[in-house]
Automatic annotation (TrEMBL):
<dbReference type="GO" id="GO:0016438">
    <property type="term" value="F:tRNA-queuosine(34) beta-mannosyltransferase activity"/>
</dbReference>
<dbReference type="InterPro" id="IPR022701">
    <property type="entry name" value="QTMAN_N"/>
</dbReference>
<keyword id="KW-0328">Glycosyltransferase</keyword>
<comment type="similarity">
    <text>Belongs to the glycosyltransferase group 1 family. Glycosyltransferase 4 subfamily.</text>
</comment>
<feature type="domain" description="tRNA-queuosine alpha-mannosyltransferase N-terminal">
    <location>
        <begin position="10"/>
        <end position="123"/>
    </location>
</feature>
<dbReference type="InterPro" id="IPR051862">
    <property type="entry name" value="GT-like_domain_containing_1"/>
</dbReference>
<keyword id="KW-0808">Transferase</keyword>
<protein>
    <recommendedName>
        <fullName>tRNA-queuosine alpha-mannosyltransferase</fullName>
        <ecNumber>2.4.1.110</ecNumber>
    </recommendedName>
</protein>
<dbReference type="Pfam" id="PF12038">
    <property type="entry name" value="QTMAN_N"/>
</dbReference>
Length: 130
């Protein structure tokens, strides 16, 4: 789902487009005229975190124009770059809204560390994959 047209050099990718995530993307969209937004509705964040990379790997068209990729930590950026090596060459900015390693668990249950681990991998991508 893209909402900008023409030659756009900044990719704004948001797997959970709602609430504060939506507010940030909308603000960036207003201030960055050269952006192209790809988003998914704010539903079932657990599934967005697990599957968004595969969705966006297919939804984002290949282009030599892209220069910068901005996403929230809901996206597993390591998976996206593995699925789409052409996006690996872009400069990357990741917005970490919530730390899943220490985020409070609502019910008395064992924590699923996969989300935190995905965030650690996502953190590494901009540091070592440009």
């Amino acid at each position: 789902m893209a909402c900008c047209h023409g030659d756009k050099s900044v990719l704004l990718i948001e797997p959970f487009y709602g609430g504060s995530h939506q507010q940030l993307i909308d603000l960036l969209h207003e201030d960055i005229p050269a952006c192209k937004i790809f988003m998914l509705p704010a539903k079932k964040w657990h599934w967005r975190a697990r599957t968004a990379a595969l969705h966006f790997s297919q939804a984002i068209p290949h282009s030599e124009v892209y220069r910068l990729l901005f996403c929230s930590s809901v996206l597993n950026l390591a998976e996206l770059v593995a699925l789409r090596p052409d996006l690996g060459r872009l400069r990357k900015i990741v917005y970490f809204h919530e730390n899943q390693l220490i985020y409070p668990v609502r019910k008395s249950q064992e924590r699923d560390f996969q989300y935190g681990y995905n965030q650690v991998l996502t953190w590494y991508v901009p540091l070592f994959h440009t």
